[in-house]
Amino acid sequence: MSQLEDIQAEYEKFPEELESVIISTVSAQAIPNASYAPFVIDDSKNIYIYVSGLSTHTKNLYENPHVSVLFIEDEAKSNLIFARRRLNFDCRANLIERETDKWNQIVEQFQARFGQIIEVLRGLSDFRIFQLTPSEGRFVVGFGAAYHISGDNLNELVQITGDSNQKQG
Question: Rounded to an integer, what distance in angstroms lies between the CA atom of residue 101 and that of residue 111?
Fold first, then answer.
């Protein structure tokens, strides 16, 4: 396997190592908010979060559908705190309407992954599922090892080099 193929394989499995994603939203007044949410992800890299309608980040998603997500390696597992593996995506949020076929399918995925707590959340009417659809991203695996992500199904990784952040293949 080439180095790029190794990085590609690592990129594909990295989100599966984590149970939650950091989400960054912005209010209608341009006030940023960082939070987190447990997630499930599909083959097209759509990220689904199941969140309370009472939270700041949910209110922000209604007001401004642009969201940045960050998957980041656990500090305890990192060899070097300054170079933790991380994956971020620029996304657009869309609400999945409750009790639709898609909503039920996603809830079942949450239940399979997180267990009985989902039965409790399912009964709480303020909880919402948002689909976060990535448009592009960046995968960092260490110093000097950052990759821009784009293309169909977000499968194209191109190493970022130089001070100008220009991409090279």
Answer: 15
* Partner residues linked to 21 by β-bridges: 37
Q: In DSSP terms, which residues pair with 146 in a beta bridge? A: 140, 160
User: How many residues does the structure list for the chain?
Assistant: 169
Radius of gyration of the chain (CA): 17
Give residue-wise pLDDT tens across range 133-146. Answer: 999 999 999 888 99
- pTM value? 0.91
Give the model's confidence band at 101: pLDDT under 50 very low, under 70 low, under 90 confident, else very high: very high
3-state secondary structure the chain: CCHHHHHHHHHHHHHHHCCEEEEEEECCCCCEEEEEEEEEECCCCCEEEEEECCCHHHHHHHHCCEEEEEEECCHHHCCCHHHCCEEEEEEEEEEECCCCHHHHHHHHHHHHHHCCHHHHHHCCCCEEEEEEEEEEEEEEEECCEEEEEECHHHCEEEEEECCCCEEEC
